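Sequence, please.
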Protein backbone atom coordinates (compact mmCIF):
# COMPACT_ATOMS: atom_id res chain seq x y z
CA UNK A 1 0.00 0.00 0.00
CA UNK A 2 2.92 2.32 0.63
CA UNK A 3 4.03 2.10 -3.01
CA UNK A 4 0.46 2.81 -4.10
CA UNK A 5 0.37 5.89 -1.87
CA UNK A 6 3.68 7.10 -3.34
CA UNK A 7 2.32 6.61 -6.88
CA UNK A 8 -0.74 8.66 -5.89
CA UNK A 9 1.46 11.42 -4.50
CA UNK A 10 3.53 11.52 -7.69
CA UNK A 11 0.44 11.72 -9.91
CA UNK A 12 -1.13 14.34 -7.64
CA UNK A 13 2.01 16.49 -7.65
CA UNK A 14 2.29 16.26 -11.43
CA UNK A 15 -1.32 17.34 -11.95
CA UNK A 16 -0.91 20.05 -9.30
CA UNK A 17 2.07 21.45 -11.24
CA UNK A 18 0.29 21.11 -14.59
CA UNK A 19 -2.82 22.83 -13.24
CA UNK A 20 -0.88 25.76 -11.82
CA UNK A 21 1.13 26.09 -15.03
CA UNK A 22 -1.99 25.98 -17.18
CA UNK A 23 -3.74 28.52 -14.95
CA UNK A 24 -1.42 31.17 -16.34
CA UNK A 25 -3.13 30.72 -19.69
CA UNK A 26 -6.21 32.35 -18.11
CA UNK A 27 -4.14 35.43 -17.31
CA UNK A 28 -2.62 35.41 -20.80
CA UNK A 29 -6.11 34.98 -22.27
CA UNK A 30 -7.44 38.06 -20.47
CA UNK A 31 -4.40 40.20 -21.34
CA UNK A 32 -4.53 39.10 -24.98
CA UNK A 33 -8.25 39.79 -25.26
CA UNK A 34 -7.72 43.22 -23.69
CA UNK A 35 -4.95 43.90 -26.22
CA UNK A 36 -7.21 42.86 -29.10
CA UNK A 37 -9.95 45.20 -27.93
CA UNK A 38 -7.46 48.07 -27.60
CA UNK A 39 -6.00 47.41 -31.06
CA UNK A 40 -9.46 47.32 -32.61
CA UNK A 41 -10.79 50.44 -30.93
CA UNK A 42 -7.68 52.63 -30.90
CA UNK A 43 -6.09 51.67 -34.20
CA UNK A 44 -8.82 49.82 -36.09
CA UNK A 45 -6.31 47.00 -36.53
CA UNK A 46 -6.63 43.30 -35.97
CA UNK A 47 -4.50 40.22 -36.20
CA UNK A 48 -5.84 36.81 -37.14
CA UNK A 49 -2.91 35.06 -35.41
CA UNK A 50 -3.60 36.90 -32.16
CA UNK A 51 -7.32 36.17 -32.45
CA UNK A 52 -6.57 32.48 -33.01
CA UNK A 53 -4.24 32.45 -30.01
CA UNK A 54 -7.32 32.94 -27.83
CA UNK A 55 -8.60 29.55 -28.96
CA UNK A 56 -5.25 27.95 -28.11
CA UNK A 57 -5.16 29.50 -24.64
CA UNK A 58 -8.80 28.65 -23.96
CA UNK A 59 -8.22 25.04 -25.02
CA UNK A 60 -5.07 24.78 -22.92
CA UNK A 61 -6.92 26.13 -19.91
CA UNK A 62 -9.82 23.69 -20.05
CA UNK A 63 -8.18 20.59 -21.50
CA UNK A 64 -4.92 20.97 -19.59
CA UNK A 65 -6.56 21.57 -16.22
CA UNK A 66 -9.00 18.63 -16.27
CA UNK A 67 -6.71 16.37 -14.20
CA UNK A 68 -6.05 19.23 -11.77
CA UNK A 69 -9.79 19.82 -11.45
CA UNK A 70 -10.37 16.12 -10.71
CA UNK A 71 -7.56 16.25 -8.14
CA UNK A 72 -9.30 19.08 -6.30
CA UNK A 73 -12.79 17.57 -6.66
CA UNK A 74 -13.90 20.46 -8.86
CA UNK A 75 -15.91 18.54 -11.42
CA UNK A 76 -19.68 18.76 -11.35
CA UNK A 77 -21.32 16.09 -9.25
CA UNK A 78 -24.78 15.49 -7.84
CA UNK A 79 -23.91 15.93 -4.19
CA UNK A 80 -27.26 15.19 -2.56
CA UNK A 81 -26.19 11.88 -1.02
CA UNK A 82 -22.41 11.98 -1.44
CA UNK A 83 -21.77 14.75 1.10
CA UNK A 84 -23.49 12.79 3.88
CA UNK A 85 -21.58 9.54 3.24
CA UNK A 86 -18.75 8.28 5.41
CA UNK A 87 -15.20 8.51 4.07
CA UNK A 88 -15.20 4.79 3.27
CA UNK A 89 -18.49 4.97 1.36
CA UNK A 90 -17.22 8.01 -0.55
CA UNK A 91 -14.21 5.89 -1.49
CA UNK A 92 -16.53 3.19 -2.87
CA UNK A 93 -18.46 5.81 -4.89
CA UNK A 94 -15.23 7.34 -6.23
CA UNK A 95 -13.82 3.93 -7.16
CA UNK A 96 -17.02 2.92 -8.93
CA UNK A 97 -17.22 6.29 -10.69
CA UNK A 98 -13.68 6.06 -12.04
CA UNK A 99 -14.06 2.45 -13.16
CA UNK A 100 -17.57 2.66 -14.62
CA UNK A 101 -17.70 6.21 -16.00
CA UNK A 102 -14.34 8.01 -16.11
CA UNK A 103 -12.10 5.33 -17.62
CA UNK A 104 -14.56 4.20 -20.33
CA UNK A 105 -15.23 7.81 -21.36
CA UNK A 106 -11.51 8.59 -21.49
CA UNK A 107 -10.92 5.42 -23.50
CA UNK A 108 -13.55 6.48 -26.04
CA UNK A 109 -12.25 10.06 -26.27
CA UNK A 110 -8.68 8.82 -26.61
CA UNK A 111 -9.49 6.18 -29.21
CA UNK A 112 -11.31 8.71 -31.38
CA UNK A 113 -8.79 11.49 -30.80
CA UNK A 114 -5.59 9.54 -31.47
CA UNK A 115 -6.09 9.06 -35.25
CA UNK A 116 -7.43 12.61 -35.50
CA UNK A 117 -4.35 14.06 -33.77
CA UNK A 118 -2.00 11.72 -35.63
CA UNK A 119 -3.37 12.82 -39.02
CA UNK A 120 -2.93 16.44 -37.99
CA UNK A 121 0.71 15.83 -36.98
CA UNK A 122 1.45 13.97 -40.22
CA UNK A 123 0.67 17.06 -42.27
CA UNK A 124 1.67 19.56 -39.56
CA UNK A 125 -1.79 21.05 -39.91
CA UNK A 126 -2.00 24.80 -39.76
CA UNK A 127 -4.57 27.51 -39.81
CA UNK A 128 -6.89 27.88 -42.78
CA UNK A 129 -5.99 31.58 -42.72
CA UNK A 130 -2.69 32.51 -44.34
CA UNK A 131 -1.80 34.88 -41.51
CA UNK A 132 -3.11 32.57 -38.79
CA UNK A 133 -1.24 30.29 -36.42
CA UNK A 134 0.06 27.26 -38.23
CA UNK A 135 0.02 25.12 -35.10
CA UNK A 136 -3.35 23.40 -35.32
CA UNK A 137 -1.59 20.06 -34.77
CA UNK A 138 -0.53 21.30 -31.32
CA UNK A 139 -4.02 22.54 -30.58
CA UNK A 140 -5.47 19.12 -31.39
CA UNK A 141 -2.80 17.46 -29.23
CA UNK A 142 -4.35 19.13 -26.21
CA UNK A 143 -7.14 16.55 -26.46
CA UNK A 144 -4.57 13.87 -25.67
CA UNK A 145 -3.17 15.96 -22.82
CA UNK A 146 -6.70 16.00 -21.41
CA UNK A 147 -7.04 12.22 -21.74
CA UNK A 148 -3.62 11.43 -20.24
CA UNK A 149 -3.73 13.86 -17.31
CA UNK A 150 -7.30 12.90 -16.40
CA UNK A 151 -6.57 9.18 -16.80
CA UNK A 152 -3.61 9.35 -14.43
CA UNK A 153 -5.61 11.39 -11.96
CA UNK A 154 -8.35 8.77 -12.21
CA UNK A 155 -5.74 6.15 -11.31
CA UNK A 156 -4.80 8.26 -8.30
CA UNK A 157 -8.43 8.67 -7.22
CA UNK A 158 -8.95 4.92 -7.60
CA UNK A 159 -5.79 4.13 -5.65
CA UNK A 160 -6.73 6.58 -2.89
CA UNK A 161 -10.12 4.89 -2.72
CA UNK A 162 -8.57 1.42 -2.49
CA UNK A 163 -6.24 2.58 0.28
CA UNK A 164 -9.14 4.03 2.25
CA UNK A 165 -11.35 0.98 1.68
CA UNK A 166 -8.52 -1.27 2.91
CA UNK A 167 -8.35 0.75 6.13
CA UNK A 168 -4.93 2.29 5.50
CA UNK A 169 -6.25 5.85 5.61
CA UNK A 170 -3.10 7.15 7.29
CA UNK A 171 -1.16 6.57 4.03
CA UNK A 172 -3.20 9.21 2.17
CA UNK A 173 -3.72 11.73 4.97
CA UNK A 174 -2.38 15.10 3.95
CA UNK A 175 -2.00 14.14 0.30
CA UNK A 176 -3.50 16.38 -2.34
CA UNK A 177 -5.97 13.73 -3.45
CA UNK A 178 -7.33 13.53 0.11
CA UNK A 179 -9.52 16.53 -0.74
CA UNK A 180 -11.78 14.46 -2.99
CA UNK A 181 -12.75 12.15 -0.18
Amino acid sequence: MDKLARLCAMIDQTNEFLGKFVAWSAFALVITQFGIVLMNHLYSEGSIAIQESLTYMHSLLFLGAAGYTLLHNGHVRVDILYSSLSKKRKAYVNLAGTLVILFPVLFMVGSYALPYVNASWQILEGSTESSGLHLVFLLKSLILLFVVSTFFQGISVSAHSIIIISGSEDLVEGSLGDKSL
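The chain has one domain: 2-180.
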